Amino acid sequence: MKDRAGWVFKGLACLLLIFALVLTYLSLAELLMPETGKTVKKSGKMVVDCSHMDEGYIMVRANKSKKKLKVRISCDVNKEKIVLNYNLNGNGDFEVFPLQFGNRKYAVTLYQNIGGKKYSQEGQVGVKPNMADERRCFLYPNQYVNYDANTACVREAMKMCEGMTEQTRIYQTICDYVKGHFVYDFIKSVTVQPGTLPDIDGCWEKNMGICQDLSAMMIAMLRSQGIPARLTIGTLGSGTYHAWVTAYVNGEEQFYDPTVEVNAGSRNETYTTERFY
């Protein structure tokens, strides 16, 4: 009888383990990740995959090059010309860029360095998405908020929010976690080089980061749980360049500044948005 009971106990334990693994797999399966497709536009040395523009993103790559490459994505918003410049890898690999200004015409231009600060245009295409939800792009990773299913903060978000369905609860759980587990990296704030992208993995591993690291990490966690969130970059009233979180919880815009919440900034600042991803 004891042997039979032991086998029953072991069998139940195995079933519980399998059940837990299935739940984890299903959770990760819901994570939205960019994919290449069959709809591409080519111009010069550039290839633009626009197969999933309805999801709010494009993927861009260039021919392999040892020279610096840049991608410029521009559009008109309320009669104002918006121009966003990105670095592009020279490995010939696709990178993901959001169409964060909604359904309008975008020009995508590739530039290659030809010496010093001079660049030559090496390709240009036009794209025009037709998104049913213009906030959809804020549910996918991109160059500024770069993560996948194996990113540690994403896996932790899956774990801590398991079984939750209400966005308000999910949002607050993630806010509380970031506030309770991370600090501001004051040394990096004065040594970081211009143009450095947010470091989500480094922020997680060290439990500290500068404004863009803390914000991008939190946004990755929110997006993994189906809450649209954008990395907002701009200036404070004091003139300091800064990054913070803008989330859409049940359709309502929510402001959250991780830097302030970890006691490294003032709650009396004013914020001016310059760009967002």
Quickly list its features.
four-stranded antiparallel β-sheet, 2 domains, Immunoglobulin-like, C8orf32 fold, 32% strand, alpha+beta, 7 helices, 277 residues, globular
What overall geometry do the principal axes of the alpha carbons give? globular
Instruction: Kindly report the average pLDDT value.
Output: 92
CATH topology of the largest domain: C8orf32 fold
DSSP summary, beta strand count:
14
The count of helical stretches stands at 7
Number of domains: 2
Whole-Å distance between the termini?
Answer: 62 Å
Q: Percentage of helical residues? A: 25-40%
CATH architecture of the largest domain: Roll
Low-confidence stretches: 16-29
Along the chain, the helix and strand elements come as HEEEEEEEEHHEHHEHEEEHE
Radius of gyration: 21 Å
Percentage of β-strand residues: 25-35%
**CATH top level class name of the largest domain:** Alpha Beta
Structural class: alpha+beta
Strand neighbour order, sheet with most strands: 1-2-3-6
Description:
- The chain has 277 residues and is α+β, with helices and mostly antiparallel strands.
- 30% of the residues lie in helices and 32% in strands.
- It has 7 helices and 14 strands.
- It has a 4-stranded antiparallel beta sheet with strand order 1-2-3-6, with no helix packed on it.
- A hairpin with a 7-residue loop joins β2 and β3.
- α2 crosses α6, α3 runs antiparallel to α6 and α5 packs across α6 (211-224).
- Mean pLDDT is 92; it is low at 16-29.
